[in-house]
Amino acid sequence: MTINEIRQKYFDFMVARGHQIIPSSPLVPEGDATTLFTSAGMQPMMPYLLGQKHPLGTRLADSQKCFRSQDIEEVGDNRHTTFFEMLGNWSLGDYFKKEQLEYFFRFLTDKKDGLGLDPNRLSVSVFAGGDGVDKDEEAISIWKNLFAKTGINAKEGHQIFAYPAKKNWWSRSGTPDKMPVGEPGGPDSEVFFDFGEDRKLHENSPFKNEPCHINCDCGRYLEIGNSVFMQYVKLADGSLKELPQKNIDFGGGLVRLAAAVNDDPDIFKTDIYFPVINEIEKISGHSYEIADHQPSMRIIADHLTAATFLIKDSVFPSNKAQGYVLRRLLRRAAVKLHFLMGSREGITQLAGITTSIVDIYKSIYFAGDDTIYVQSAIAQEIGKFEKSLDKGIKELEKKADVSGKDAFDLYQNHGFPLEITIEILAQLGKQVDIQEFQKEFEKHQNVSRTSSTGMFKGGLADQSVIVTAYHTATHLLHAALRQILGNHVSQKGSNITSLRLRFDFSHPEKISDEKIEEIQSLINEKISEKLKVTKEELPKEKALEQGALAFFGQKYPDVVTVYTVGDPKNYFSKELCGGPHVESLSELAKIKIVKQETLGSGVRRLYLQFV
To answer: What is the pLDDT of residue 66?
Structure first.
């Protein structure tokens, strides 16, 4: 099965069981200053898991785009990526453990409605108990019955394994002892696919000679899905109390499921990566079948895929936040290709590889002009890095001794990963103090952790008064731009903090100071009129017929939330949006547009602040 076939089969399976399919949210959470990226399928669902009613009901499913920057250094083996799609289904106070485990087991094993995997090759983990919560005997009993229906006598120690909270408990903060007061969480149950003992030799794993188990990292077992039983909340006295509404939060890695279907532990041989690998083979002149080439090719394929999706969601290379991560991805891919080819000349061809990525996903996530849009941003960044690459190599050539700090400075300033610096130095007959580099790297990590205190692992949208106000101002700015510059203006993305609003939109040229003043005055005029902001839920087609705007190519469910600013019959703004928003513009201060930037490819950026 192809990736697209597996995704659709999952949707069909869940719809047949009463679920509504919801679209993927953007990779950059809108109005959420607590996290850089959407890194898990549950992240956009958190308001509903915490009790807010979803307009489509209590049974939902999707395939969510995710990006995990913390996994960048892990990419290179046969199973780790930074970008991935997470299949998800949720029960918001509806069904619970029995139905959920049965649904997933049947989807995995059913030859007609599911993936037809051999149940003998599946193993599961459950919560072993602790922190005042009993061992999950219920899940163990359910799994025994499910395996028994296929003729398998599964039991603890054989296909069913119990682990403590570190492995089988989920909350945004981690284990129960780390959960803050009011935080929801619960035990979970993971499913693993067994590729066979001989597969341990396929990767040069440091664990290959140790006893194997489902949670080891030798490459034999691959986690393909996790059902979270969100049934507890942390109390002020440190104990856990059962929630009145018990939720199911399921996530299954789409490309990992494809690897299991293919019976090949190398996810880069699935149909979403191998066309990209083929392009890298053509450019580099090397074969993926040569083991020494695989780590570099995997890194290039993953990083370019992630970069393509990030740019599509209006992230551009920079030295800050999401832009810095994107820059690091592109430069790391460029360095890997440079050494794969033996020269920097080929790195300018990186942008062209994205055509195959867009083609793979075009029926799901991309529009016709996205290839040019993405390639322009990548070509511009790689063009800048060509000079950095030469400078970095020259710096290493002129130093008699290269310290760990020198290597870290190259990593920090020129995007040279340590392994690349080591490779360059080996060619020059030099070495670097790796321990000193690690000390500098850890020092940098500690600073990063300190500066990012308060950013939840899973993210939680900031719904403070100021952020809510900026969220409403986004709609005002969008409407004003279209009114003054023309209806070609379309929102490409936004980012909101408690200090400012950043807004990206399509427009071919720099906006004059006079037009900026005109846009600013129009928004302030509407704020002074104290227009009402109304919210309603409508069928998507009806909302669009009424003139509601949908932005930056996002896909929407059949029933949508519409926010209207002004009289519904003579409105200033009407958009499909998830909120939050003020109830009246009387709650907003006057605004000032403080900065304008060019992002290339006919996209501009404005910064707005309340004054």
So the answer is: 93
